[in-house]
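Two proteins follow. First one:
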Amino acid sequence: MTADRSAGAGSPARSGTPAADGGPAGSPARTGTAAPDGIPTRPSSSAEGAARRLLGLLAADAPAEELASQPARSRAAGVPAPDIAGVERATETALSVRRVLDQHRRREAELVALFDTAGDLAALRDLDAVLRAIVRRARTLLGSDVAYLTLHDPLARDTFMRVTDGSVSAAFQQLRLGMGEGLGGLVAQTARPYASTDYRTDRRYRHTGTIDDGVAEEGLRGILGVPLRLGEEVIGVLFAADRTPREFTPDAIALLGSLADHAAVAIDGARLLEETRSALTRLEAANATARAHAEALHVASDAHDRLTRLVLRGAGIDDVAAEIAALLRGGVAVHDTDGSELARSGTEPVAPSAETLTASRTDGRAIHADGVWTSAVLAGSESLGSIVLTGRSELPEADRRLFERAALVTAMLLLMRRSVAETEDRVRGELLDDLLADPAASPRWDGGSLTLRARRLGVHLSRPHAVAVLDSEPALRPRLAEETARRARRLGGLAGIRHGRVVLLAPSEAPGALARTLAADLARALGAPVTAGAAGPGHGPEHLAALHAEALRCVTALHALDRTGEGADIAELGFIGVLLGDRADVGTYVERVLGPVLAYDSTRGTDLLRTLRAYYDQGGSLSRAKDALHVHVNTVVQRLDRVAQLLGPDWNTPARALETHLALRLHQLTRAETGAGPRA
């Protein structure tokens, strides 16, 4: 019975039975003790029992604290001291096994967590969601206070804070780390993981004020950073950090590195997916745009064909304007280069602003301003006019292109009209040449035939006509000729080029006013000064050659007098006009210069004219003038003050004095010729 119990209790080497040579049985811890009845107990029961208890605790997954308490429990149970050492050794072995099991269990949990993380990341499609999940999982797996992720910026050649979890500092969340700066910059630069137990005091890293301030505001101490790598490329850094010093174990570094590897693949996949989605979105948008564009092209092409056929059938500008208005569901007005209206349909009179028209010419596009759309009508770089669309505050791209195509068709129509007008202008120019030819130098000159030819073109020479000669910069003279011809058609006159100068023959009884109007209007149309000299009025073709010669002298005189860019007739040039005019109207000149004085003397019976003549004859001397007049000097002064009131305060300036003195002499001459004689 005793032998069976001993065999079941343990091996013979540890049974404590007597030695074969009959020596001592061994120490009490290794041999059994005799029972009162003389039957020995089971040897080493205390140590073996403790070992069994430890194995049971390991099997039950008892905490390490309970395993470690077994030696103390054995002592409390009265286990002999020799057996206590065995219990302690067994406890150490059990704790070592427990640590290995815990390590394997933790590693298994980490692997499961990584596997779950990989599955979660693979299920995500949005890049921001992927980044947030990575940082959140890193903080959970490492049990850190804060986790964050930076991404590489290839343009700035640094990394920037992209996502944080557990962070409370705004400054920290906006940090940028240059390559090699701080712990993260070193990780990004070297593509190796780095850890710091306490970053604040760790001098292994290159500290910067910005980084240290952000880290201090967040309160971080222990920091671990691992690279996010795609092949050889580092796309960012993943961090785990605590607000207390922390020693990051190799297992923690490996765990965060594994998560970073999964994260890098997930980031790349999400980015590729996002790029693919973006590309698909752009492709869909491009397809939609292409379809809309094709439809718009079809509509625009059809409208262009309709307008073109309209023009080719010989329709006028009014018909084209009406068709454009119908196509664009608005009102249309067409204007010439000088702003005059050529046609209008479905709208009140409206004219484009100069700024809007200039912008349309520059851009070659329709411009919206002041509630209307304006498009310049261009032939290449040459402006032919403008077209205005009203009643459409919004104009889709298709309609806008249609409006611009309408401007092209309008340009084609205006070019055709201009071609016809140029042919007509050649006929008119030939007639003008014949009209301005000197009758004395042309034996075959026939005024009656010329009058008939002019009447066929709508020019009635029996009315008073004026001749104007216009001049501009040489490079602008072709355009000046076109604008003058257009003006001549509106005035019912003729225009052409003679001796290199543009000439206009138009009905007018006021050549000076005509010259001023032409100079101002044509200068606006050309954007450069235009000088106009005019002569007239004249009746019948026989006087036109002389008027042309006089107008030519007038425009030459305007240039000589530094009055380029002005318009005038001979009479308005003062005594210069008297000298230049071959039909000098001395009476008109005298009346223009001395009229107020003559009228005053006539109505009041005064001697202002005689006093004025004496004053000039005596060289402007008051004392000599009063002797010549036999009056007191104060009388002379008073009379000259009255002259100043009548002729103006500048009557005695050199230029006015010259004209006044000449007018006095001419007045005296004409009275002598008529026998009136000078008044005493």
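Second one, unrelated to the first:
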Amino acid sequence: MGFRPGSRSEIPAALLCTGVLTVGTLLLPAAPAQARSHPWAPPPVNSCGETGFDPLRRDPEPGAPVPPPPPPDPTIRIQYPLPELVPVPMPGPLPDNTRIDPAPLPADPCVNPCPDIRDNKPPPPDPEPGLAPGVPDAPPANGGSSGSGPLPQLPRLEFQPDIEPIPVPVPGGQAPEPQPLPPAAVQPPEFARAVAPLPLPAVESVELVQQVTGRGSENRTDMRWSVDGTDLGLMWEHRPGEVAVVFGDTFGKGWEPPGAGTGDQDWRSNVIAYSTDRDLSDGLALDTFVQDSRCHAAEILDARRLKNLEVTTIPTSGFSVGDRQYLSYMSVARWGMPGMWWTGHGGLAWSDDHGRTWTKSQWARWENFFGLGRFQVVAMVPRGDWVYMFGTPNGRMGTVGLARAPADQVLNKTAYQYWIGDTWTAAAGPNELLATPLVSGTASELSVHYDPGSGRWRMVYLDLQRNQIVLRTAAEPQGAWTEPVPLADLDDYPSAYGGFIHPWSTATDLYFMMSAWDSYNVYLMRARLRPEE
């Protein structure tokens, strides 16, 4: 199903991401037939008495009636592609940089800061177990008074068009201010062999600490900032004592689980929050979001909202160099098969006002020609004089490559080098395609962090082959990286993805953000690591 430019209500309903796919159940492999589950427990409740979400797989409530399965759908729906020419104004509208200075939150955390905008009435109760709403009562098992049962209903075919927009550029909009082409800054090659692997990291325990976002969270992001459903939560220290937290596709008033929302449910492709919370053992407190109106988190990176051009813009990592903030992002052209999406390009944006407004670089872009781009979903980490870029292709089935650039040249593509066969090699010609895979297997939505306390590099990602969110460590960014160690098993957290490291993690406490596609919100996790000798 397609949509017209500017018509958010026609955008496909489930935008599960960041990955996000069109249907939540397609994001992750099916749970095994004998998947373990945890004892039933009531849903969590925050200190204001609001019910939240539990991402664990749990047994059903003891004694609760089991609702009957829904009646079979007698309709067989067959979709067929229907091309549709869609004029697209180019260069298009400039981003909306409307921003406000938010008022302080009420002293009482349970007080609604914007009662004229959002109320905190509890959601309507679930319907009584039984037939789905709107379905008439089934006939008696023995049929009517005549004793004859109902005749079987023959399936009905229904052909549905699947609109495939064909973007047609037309003049329109206002061109952004031109950015000067950076001068060539080719770096000389440098030998960099992978060092010996470290001992395997010892994970003593992993626990769910807190629901960070959404209804029923201690942060009450739905009432305070119109963030009802969101994902990812990538983090970096954007200035001393404060961490920036960036979320992916975000939905507000009107959103209900499961999964992501629709274009008319206050959809923003991304939002940014700030936290000064040092004690993560009881959760991550969010102090505020960048806002464009009262109690409303602003979209910080714009998107064109058109399938086959740019459905959404998803941040993938953030970092600081001096006072300038950077975001890497992927421009998603369309969602696809399970574990797959197609990007138009990956790119960089920067902010000089601590994340209030952002500018996309016109030159630091990695185009995805024929779907072959190796650095479409990246995690970027500054270390010393360099910024390292760990990248995968679009989707969840690619290998990890490595690049780097001088810290003062991250917006200059000519200054990048790819790690190819033990040598840092200039970013020229097809060298991007030749980047040596860092680890075996595939990886999804990398998060990479250097821990100064242990002198270790850490990499966390979703491994679909193992059905786990895993951890690897290394002494150098080029490795050798250890074998993966599980942090979260999808048998326990069946809809989990992501795994973004908190920058204030320590050598023994690794905190990371985990998303869940069904509740479509973000959770803080804690992994206790055994000290390395």
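SUMMARY FIELD: The two ends are 56 Å apart (CA to CA). Confidence is low (pLDDT under 50) at residues 1-33, 127-147.
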